Amino acid sequence: MHRLLASALTAVSIVVSVPLFAQQADTRPAAVQAGDYVLDSSHTLVRFTVDHFGISEFFGTFAGASGTLSLDPKNLASAKLDVSVPVGRVSTTNTTLDEELVSADWFDAGKYPAMRFVSTKVVKTGARTADVTGNLTMHGVTRPVTLKATFKAGAINPMNKTYTLGFNATGMVRRTEFGVSKYAPLVSDETVIAITAAFEKQAD
């Protein structure tokens, strides 16, 4: 009886604590702590979507991104972002396709192991949004790309007690401009990018 009661109390404690943690998140950009941040690779994903033969959309994800962010909410234009994404970590849930994508016919991960985005300009577009323009280097080619970023929230991560910021971003690239032209245009040249990212504040 005591064990059943203890288990029930533990379950209730877990259920109750989840919304309490969620309530800590602050969506106000003005409340963001200025400073230097490191990308939380475990909670960051980059997704790409292409049109597949005009029949359906097909997407995959990249995990294992790393990078840094320097941010001052009072001077958003001074923000600096530098992120690298290992192309060898591509996943489409189709192992045969994953092997093809990292080959020389596509990303050529052996020769070009990572994509890198380095910001050059940040322009505020709304209360919680901004256009982040930067240089994207992929497949040995560097071209300007603009990401439309949205600030989600800032909070103390209840697991590691680290102040963390969350962002979403979207953008579009033409893959042929980076030399990734396999099956274009049957598999669309236009590739939609969707990013969810978390950044952990570094000690002052």
Automatic annotation (TrEMBL):
Family annotation (SUPFAM superfamilies): YceI-like
Pfam family, one: YceI
Alphabetical keyword list: Signal
Ranges where the Lipid/polyisoprenoid-binding YceI-like domain occurs: 36-200
Record's signal peptide: 1-22
Listed InterPro entries: Lipid/polyisoprenoid-bd_YceI, TTHA0802/YceI-like_sf
Superkingdom of this protein's organism: Bacteria
SMART domains: YceI
This protein's name: YceI family protein
